[in-house]
């Protein structure tokens, strides 16, 4: 059986908020390393990979591998009943029909108990190769979100170029064009506010802004985001949590 | 105009 306790409900609430517009039904794979999820969107253009490691749980017990087939819209309805600061306990049997969720406030005088029906989801897992990326950019997640939102008002796609000058996001649309260039600017006192760029080789790729704007819904998970790019391979965007991560992969646009 | 690629051409089924 599974028994997993989070000190703060907000962790799972934020993860679900971050991915629910990308995937609808997915398996939460529970095993002795924690709770993992890998799912592609319907068009097979984007993939989300999530890992909540056991260290992030106040209590974690999972004797066997258990796949929890969850509809994320339904899960979000249940999670709405949890206050951010509530302690959350997830429980499931070995071959579960339902996931039990218990929310307890810090004063210990309210216990909310919910059951979420589970579904059988036959999900293909993709093998993601280890990649040495040509460019890796670490920057404030709020700034990345702003850039994606601003450019998405002008165009459907963005060209991302990483050179020794910096990283440039540019787009062209019906009403005009726009570009934002970020230069390396580490912040010694507050590293989460700085921008660092590791460049092995120049990279130039084009991506759909609709997906990038969608990924940015994970900004609440981390003050920083890491963007990894290589020519002709999917982009990796990672939001690292204290004990886990949410990663998004996006296939580039191809051709002229 | 560029076409949107898919992930299945980069990542293999496991």
Explain this structure.
Chain A contains four helices and 20 strands. Chain A is mainly beta and 256 residues long. A nine-stranded antiparallel sheet of chain A has the order 6-2-3-4-19-18-17-11-15. In chain A, strands 5-1-7-8-9 form a five-stranded antiparallel sheet, with helices on one face. Chain A has a four-stranded antiparallel sheet with strand order 14-13-12-16. In chain A, a hairpin with a 2-residue loop joins strand 12 (157-163) and strand 13 (166-173). In chain A, helix 1 packs antiparallel against helix 2 and helix 3 (141-152) packs antiparallel against helix 4 (209-215). The radius of gyration of chain A is 20 Å and the shape is elongated. The relative contact order of chain A is 0.18. The model of chain B has no long low-confidence stretch (mean pLDDT 85). By secondary structure, chain B is mostly beta strands. Strand 10 of chain A pairs antiparallel with strand 2 of chain B, so a sheet runs across the interface.
Question: Concise description?
Answer:
Chain A is mainly beta. Chain A is built from four helices and 20 strands.
Entry keywords:
heterodimer, A: about 260 residues, mainly beta, 9-stranded antiparallel β-sheet, elongated, B: about 15 residues, about 0% helix, rod-shaped
Q: What is the tally of beta strands of chain B?
A: 2
Taking pLDDT < 50 over at least 5 consecutive residues as the criterion, the unreliable ranges of chain A are none
Shape of chain A: elongated
General shape of chain B: rod-shaped
| Order of the strands making up the biggest sheet of chain A | 6-2-3-4-19-18-17-11-15
- What is the chain-wise order of helices and strands of chain B? EE
Oligomer: heterodimer
The total of beta strands of chain A comes to: 20
State Rg of chain A. 20 Å
